[in-house]
Specification:
- The mean pLDDT is about 85.
- With about 475 residues, the chain is of the alpha/beta class.
- The chain has 17 helices and 18 strands.
- It has helices spanning about 1-25, 30-45, 45-55, 60-75, 75-85, 95-110, 125-140, 155-170, 195, 265-280, 320-330, 350-360, 375-380, 385-390, 425-430, 440-455, 470-480; strands at about 115-120, 120-125, 145-150, 175-180, 200-205, 225-230, 235, 255-260, 305-315, 335-340, 345, 365-370, 395-400, 405-410, 415-420, 420-425, 430-440, 460.
- Strand 4, helix 9 (about 195) and strand 5 form a beta-alpha-beta unit.
- The chain is globular, with a radius of gyration of 23 Å.
- Strands 1-9-17-15-14-10-12-13-18 form a 9-stranded mixed beta sheet, sandwiched between helices. Strands 2-8-7-6-3-4-5 form a 7-stranded mixed beta sheet, sandwiched between helices.
Length: about 475
């Protein structure tokens, strides 16, 4: 009788637990599949499931969104100033101007950043070229240097960057460095002490009040890589500050690309940084004047011949700008879609856009690393290969090093280079930034780089052979696609 009572009590507790969780998750209004998956996981694996949900689950963002809103309100005047700097005549006229203007209009509606111009847009390949260009720009800065990174390591390149920033701060240049608290977990405040002592400012994005190492929040990270010097020279792309991306220090360094932008479009990289800085440090800790009369941070520039639109997205914004604009560009492609990404775990609409483009005769190619730094992510990516190849998509695996480039080339005049991987985490869970460059100049350069990488890659063949255990592992990894 006692055993029966205990069984009934445990069943009642378990039933109440499941009902409470179900109500909690349903009220978050996620996709039906994700909602059901989380309920089942938490119901059948109460302890393990809760831990997974605690660290990886789609937690509510009310508090974060409120802080984001306050940071945008605080920068309302600067946003107006940046908008006023743009020329109304800014409208590219390439092979398909109507399509480009529609894409630019969509991008503006998604993230409020208008089409802008630049005097120069340079594609930088790998760490040596990229770090040399960034260091040169910082050395030349006279008023301010703003940096935002996901990973800032305490190794050779990280130490050299810290020391250069400290030197500039000591010379009177305003230096502000924002690093992600999880991605840069080894870069302690002690490491940055020389920079702070010299007058620079350092902030940690989504730092934990009880210690970054005790409760790492895996979602909602800033995955952005931004450098802005004097408001006129900016950088973004895939490279972090780490020896793992510098072939001079590491023979197996990641293969990656970055952009150097010079001109008016940099002001929109500046606005992304400023919003993240206000969001993280708070208005009272900015220690510099932001008003409509200060043109040092948002300087007026001469319109250039390169057309650039800075896209940014994050879990606080349901418009999902980078995801939405990339899928729209693929869906409107008429000639080619060439995608390079280290992590290929796309949502179903993204898969549909790629396969539909291939089926209507567009040259669609997807390049991923043969071996990434995550075995589970690689397995999940390969679970999509058969579906892509059956639709006519060429899938290539880059074997030499870890391919870390995040680029998308559409037709002959639409180039995306940024920080976002082609996966749900980048599209929905992390803060990302991307430069969308219109025109043939960068497209030709990006196409040559893609072809160079393809020349040393291996094409995945139809009906590829794989053991049943491998297939099962790939299928199992795919179940975790929304959080990988």
């Amino acid at each position: 009788m006692t055993q029966h009572v205990w069984q009934t009590a445990l069943l009642a507790v378990w039933g109440g637990y499941v009902a409470g969780l179900a109500l909690w998750i349903i009220l978050q209004k996620r996709s039906p599949a994700a909602t059901v998956s989380w309920i089942l996981l938490l119901a059948w694996l109460p302890i393990v499931g809760y831990l997974v949900y605690y660290f990886l689950g789609p937690q509510r963002l009310k508090r974060f969104r409120l802080r984001r809103l306050r940071s945008r309100v605080a920068l309302a005047v600067q946003t107006d100033v940046a908008q006023a700097c743009e020329s109304e005549a800014c409208a590219p006229a390439y092979d398909n101007p109507g399509s480009i203007q529609r894409l630019a209009r969509l991008a503006y509606a998604c993230c409020d950043n208008p089409l802008s111009t630049a005097q120069r847009v340079d594609l930088l390949v790998d760490g040596a070229q990229t770090f040399d260009a960034i260091f040169d720009a910082i050395r030349a800065a006279r008023h301010h240097v703003h940096l935002e990174y996901y990973i800032f390591e305490t190794d050779s390149i990280g130490t050299a960057m810290r020391d250069l920033l400290a030197q500039k701060a000591g010379a009177g240049v305003q230096v502000r460095l924002l690093v992600d608290a999880l991605g840069s977990v080894l870069a302690s405040r002690r490491f940055f002490a020389p920079l702070v002592k010299a007058g620079g400012q350092v902030a940690f994005f989504h730092d934990s009040k009880i210690g970054r190492r005790l409760r790492p929040v895996i979602n909602f990270r800033t995955h952005r890589k931004i450098v802005v010097c004097d408001g006129v020279v900016g950088f973004t792309g895939g490279l972090n500050i780490t020896d793992a991306e510098d072939e001079r220090s590491c023979a197996s360094a990641y293969h990656d690309v970055h952009l150097r932008i010079e001109g008016g479009a940099v002001r929109w990289l500046q606005m992304v940084f400023l919003e993240d800085w206000v969001y993280t440090a708070g208005r009272g800790n900015l220690q510099f004047n932001l008003d409509e009369h200060d043109d040092q941070y948002l300087p007026q520039t001469v319109p250039g011949g390169q057309f650039v639109q800075i896209l940014h997205s994050g879990p606080n914004d349901t418009r999902e700008a980078i995801y939405r604009v990339q899928v729209a560009a693929i869906s409107n492609a008429t000639e080619r879609v060439w995608l390079a990404t280290p992590y290929f775990v796309p949502p179903q609409p993204a898969i549909m856009s790629l396969t539909s483009a291939a089926m209507r005769g567009v040259d669609v190619r997807v390049m991923v690393p043969e071996r990434s730094d995550s075995r589970v992510v690689s397995a999940a990516a390969r679970s999509y290969f058969d579906e892509l190849i059956a639709a006519g998509v060429q899938v290539w695996e880059y074997p030499e090093r870890m391919l870390h480039s995040k680029t998308l080339l559409v037709d002959t005049d639409c180039s995306f280079v940024g920080t976002a991987n082609f996966d749900s985490r980048s599209f929905k869970l992390n803060y990302e930034v991307c430069a969308l460059v219109y025109g043939p100049e960068l497209a030709q350069r990006l196409a040559r780089q893609f072809e160079d990488d393809q020349a040393v890659s291996v094409r995945v063949q139809p009906q590829r052979k794989a053991a049943i255990t491998t297939r099962l592992f790939e299928a199992g990894a795919r179940l975790f696609s929304p959080v990988l």
